[in-house]
Amino acid sequence: GLVPLGPDLVGLPYQGSTFPHKFPRWKYRDERGQVRYAVWKRERLACVEASGEGFFATPVIKFFGRQLRLNCKTPMTGEIRVEAVAITSWVRKRKTEEVIAGRSFEDCDPISGDHLAHTVTWKGQADLGHAENKPVYLRFKLRVAKLFSFTPIHG
Prior knowledge:
about 0% helix
């Protein structure tokens, strides 16, 4: 139901009226009842937001890309950092995990600003450092930040 409204906006059409449903129909109702749009920036419909410090982790996923892109926004005082965790074994619902070497929060180059597709780097390296098609999960630390999406990419 989203409608493109130019190059950088999307809208959700809605219609409302101040008159009850069974109110007698008449042609002089001003602009009430006309279709309007709730408007958002394209690619920015929903987000995870931390107004202070925040943390979350993804479920375990098979990550098919070699790099990670974020759609995010922070003020100058905010930042996002990402840590990649490999699952080293998984036996009867018990998993053993470890942070991928060089892909910790401390190694992550802080991300700040307004980005639709920012490639995450760790000490300047964009490769996630995981074995292809192996289960991993991502941990995110946010400080005064909004994260709209993350996407694996082949790099």
